[in-house]
Design brief:
binds zinc ion; 6 helices; about 240 residues; six-stranded mixed β-sheet; globular; two-stranded antiparallel sheet; single chain; alpha/beta; Aminopeptidase
């Protein structure tokens, strides 16, 4: 695997395009390979209170040479939430409950700030499915680039969720040491994962553990580098 020299890893040199604008007017950015057709989309930061996902994926992107990037990358799918430190976007909508699915509901979704706390903080799912520009932009760009598989990064449930128990899911679990599960065990109406399942688009949810970022950089960035460069493919055997 080729990596950019450390001195050059301070900025992102890959080309990005805009796929929309947030409620607060921030550009939604996706990084696309210049030399390859992207078969996979890696997406972080749909929950603004999970900045570790963005930092880890950014570090991998910044260490990948331009010619070696094989896949599409969204570092932050919810910049408004990230800038405000909220799980939801600027209108209080949990974007991961705003997708158009058979089971979408207008009932609020409840979350917790920390693992172990009660799940009692209410967020909106939007006034209708795809009510939010961040959701609509994401669906538009997915339609355009047509990835064969998606990995959505979250924290901190400490697992790899893959409803298809695919070779990629198994590889991610084996290399990260995170347990592989096929379902989080509770309904997630309107989630990105449920949307993808209905569209039969393979989507794996990678949930980083609740660990200091410094530990996680050592533990996970190498795996992310392999995914960006498709190096994992040679390690996935039939
Ligand atoms: Zn999340």
């Amino acid at each position: 695997m080729k990596l950019i020299s450390r001195v050059e890893r301070g900025i992102i040199k890959h080309k990005s395009i805009s796929y929309g604008t947030t409620n607060l007017g921030i550009t939604l950015e996706i990084y696309l390979p210049e030399k390859h057709e992207p078969k996979m989309l890696l997406m972080a930061g749909i929950h603004g209170d999970e900045p570790d996902t963005t930092v880890l994926l950014s570090e991998a992107l910044r260490s990948t040479p331009i010619d070696e990037l094989h896949n599409a990358v969204i570092l932050c799918a919810n910049p408004d939430g990230m800038s405000r430190g909220t799980r939801a976007n600027a209108r209080g909508v949990d974007l991961n409950r705003n997708f158009s699915t058979d089971n979408w509901t207008s009932n609020p979704v409840y979350h917790r700030n920390h693992v172990g706390e009660p799940q009692d903080i209410a967020l909106s799912t939007g006034h209708k499915p795809e009510s939010e520009p961040e959701t609509r932009g994401l669906l538009r760009i997915i339609d355009q680039i047509n990835p064969r598989e998606i990995i959505a990064f979250h924290s901190a449930l400490d697992c790899v969720e893959d409803p298809n128990n695919s070779k990629l899911g198994q590889w991610l679990s084996k290399n990260s040491g995170l347990k592989l599960i096929d379902d989080v065990g509770y309904p997630t109406p309107g989630s990105f994962g449920t949307w993808a399942k209905e569209k039969k688009l393979p989507l794996i949810t990678f949930e980083f553990p609740e660990e200091p970022l410094t530990h996680m950089k050592t533990r996970f960035v190498n795996i992310l580098n392999k995914l960006l460069q498709n190096e994992h493919l040679s390690e996935i055997s039939d």
